[in-house]
Amino acid sequence: MRILLTNDDGIEAEGLACLEAIARALSDDVWVCAPAVEQSGKGRGITLTEPLRVNEMGDKRFAVTGTPTDCVVLAINDLMPERPDLVLSGVNRGHNIGEDVSYSGTVAGALQGMAMGVKSIALSQSLERFHDEVVAHWETAQAFAPGIIQRLMEAGWSDGVVMNLNFPNLPPELVKTVEVTTQGFRDLAEMHAIKRTDLRGRNYYWMGFRAGEQRPAQGTDLRAIAEGRISVTPLHIDLTHHQTAHDLKSVLGGAPPRLKA
After folding, report:
1. Per-block average pLDDT, block size 10, for the chain (261 residues)?
2. d(Cα 91, Cα 32) in Å, to the nearest integer?
3. Are 87 and 118 in contact (CB under 8 A)?
């Protein structure tokens, strides 16, 4: 099995080293194509207004001055002699659950692999909090990801779907359960900006997250991670709300309506 690895934390990230260990437990044919610098929160962004530079860092290892999506496109179309059988994106430093998945560069890397016809999986390791001194339990993702990936590949899944794996903020010996979940949504918005002033007296804003007590629904990725379980969520890129589309067909269709006087 030929495996392509990418991430959004950058080519030097600890999580990418963890992902390499995971991939090498599954195959000897492992390729890495990751952003040269961190691209967290870039979602499915692609680079259109400037050139992309590729630096060959070693055998089957490339750093790209672009996003995770750029990396997957370049790797599959230009840098690899043959298409991969599997794309793994991560292991992200911090979970990607709930509405996180819509702006996650980690999930975006997997989505691009899927869009190019390759089975793709995103992997993230939950953290206690997003501070530099906090060390992630990389050993948890490394302990459980190979077996889960192998089981998923044996079972197979539908085209147009990516698997989103999240590992709880626990050491391996305390993780007892894996759960297939749905994408949850938080009760309270966690994103906010802090207003500051630079040395020239100009205001700027720094975006971040604040913790808040949540009450996630049973069966969601949010609930599984909060309760110390591994979460496996099948995701797809179709954002259509089918019930609303069905309901609207009774009021819209045919000739476009004119503004009433």
Report:
1. 98 98 98 96 94 98 98 98 98 94 96 98 90 88 98 97 98 98 81 90 87 81 96 96 96 94 88
2. 13
3. yes
Give the helix ranges, DSSP H, for 82-137.
105-115
Q: Are 209 and 97 in contact (CB under 8 A)?
A: no
pTM above 0.90, yes or no: yes
Q: Give the type of residue at 3.
A: I
* CA–CA dist 142, 35 (Å, integer): 22
- With contact defined as beta carbons under 8 Å apart, do 85 and 118 qualify? yes
Nearest to 237 by CA among 157, 185, 159, 184: 159
Burial of 186 (C-beta count, 10 Å sphere; 0-12/13-18/19+): middle
Contact between residue 171 and residue 139 where contact means Cβ atoms under 8 Å apart: yes
Could you give the CA distance from residue 75 to residue 83 in angstroms, rounded to a whole number? Answer: 9
Report how far residue 156's alpha carbon sits from residue 151's, in angstroms, rounded to the nearest whole number: 8
Q: Please give the Cα distance from 241 to 221 (Å, whole number).
A: 20
